[in-house]
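Milestone 3.1: sequence recovery, worked example.
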């Protein structure tokens, strides 16, 4: 016989607070609140050390902020005057051009190419060999930029190591490398220092490629060059895009190395945007003008990142 449902059960359903779905929703809300509280320290640090400086940079670029003079004690909003002055300054175009040359030669071509080449050549080698070569290359990367700059000044100086070797072996006269080929000097120095980062990134990506895929291509008659261009490189295309973007952004901000080696000279031949910004902000004491230049540098970095993603068709 079917159990009859009492009038008491029909008229008194399960309270909403004791319903299983209500308990699940309450647990979800508790977890979300707990997640927010656990992430709050990170949000606070991000706000203090990233968002606030960025907001102040944008704000100060529209002011007459200065370290000396009347404007140092009387901050005023001047609109787009800093940007108008900047785009009328012929030094801006020269600095942008120097920055593009420096980034393309030392980061996009130099660090990415040599980093991939070294990682590819070390692939499959024994662990001891990889460790020795890796430590030698990484030693340059962990060395501070100012130390690297002085090392290259002593190597390329008039009485430096390179001229001594050239004179001893070839009888050549000393060459003022930093004066005759300043951009080439800073590009080579930055490649020497930064290649280790690209090497480590590519080494990890190449080690993740299944060997069975390449072995199958060799069995089908593919040459080594065909395997590299049609299998290896396409399989690490995402890593290439990420690495190119990272080294580009890193190289855009290189200041200490260039300023230590050449000071932006001779003349303005190696004055990149960071050097130009430093001179305007801390040599001419025009902080508002310097922050306006920094926004141009930020815009170039954003444009470069978008171009990499579009050209290489990679979604991060």
């Amino acid at each position: 016989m079917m159990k009859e449902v009492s009038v008491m059960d029909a008229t008194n359903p399960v309270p909403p607070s004791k319903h299983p779905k209500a308990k699940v929703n309450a647990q979800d809300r508790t977890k979300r609140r707990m997640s927010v509280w656990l992430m709050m320290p990170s949000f606070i640090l991000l706000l203090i050390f990233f968002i606030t400086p960025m907001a102040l940079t944008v704000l100060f670029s529209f002011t007459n902020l200065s370290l000396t003079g009347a404007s140092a004690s009387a901050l005023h909003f001047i609109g787009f005057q800093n940007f108008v002055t900047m785009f009328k300054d012929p030094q801006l175009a020269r600095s942008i051009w120097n920055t593009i040359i420096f980034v393309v030669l030392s980061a996009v071509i130099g660090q990415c190419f040599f980093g991939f080449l070294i990682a590819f050549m070390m692939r499959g080698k024994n662990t001891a060999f990889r460790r020795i070569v890796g430590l030698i290359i990484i030693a340059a990367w962990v060395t501070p930029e100012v130390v690297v700059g002085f090392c290259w000044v002593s190597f390329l100086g008039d009485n430096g190591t390179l001229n001594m070797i050239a004179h001893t072996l070839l009888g050549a006269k000393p060459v003022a490398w930093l004066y005759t080929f300043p951009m080439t000097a800073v590009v080579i120095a930055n490649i020497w220092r930064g290649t280790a980062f690209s090497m480590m990134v590519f080494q990890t990506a190449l080690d993740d490629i299944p060997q069975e895929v390449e072995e199958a291509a060799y069995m089908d008659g593919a040459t080594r060059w065909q395997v590299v261009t049609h299998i290896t490189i396409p399989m690490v295309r995402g890593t290439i895009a990420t690495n190119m973007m990272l080294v580009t952004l890193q190289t855009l901000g290189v200041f200490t190395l260039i300023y230590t080696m050449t000071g932006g000279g001779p003349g303005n031949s190696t004055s990149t945007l960071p050097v130009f910004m430093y001179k305007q902000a801390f040599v001419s004491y025009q902080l508002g003008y310097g922050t306006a230049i920094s926004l141009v540098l930020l815009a170039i970095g954003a444009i470069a990142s978008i171009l990499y993603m579009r050209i290489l068709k990679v979604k991060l």
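Residues 1-8 have pLDDT under 50 and may be disordered. Residues 4 and 10 are 11 Å apart (CA to CA).
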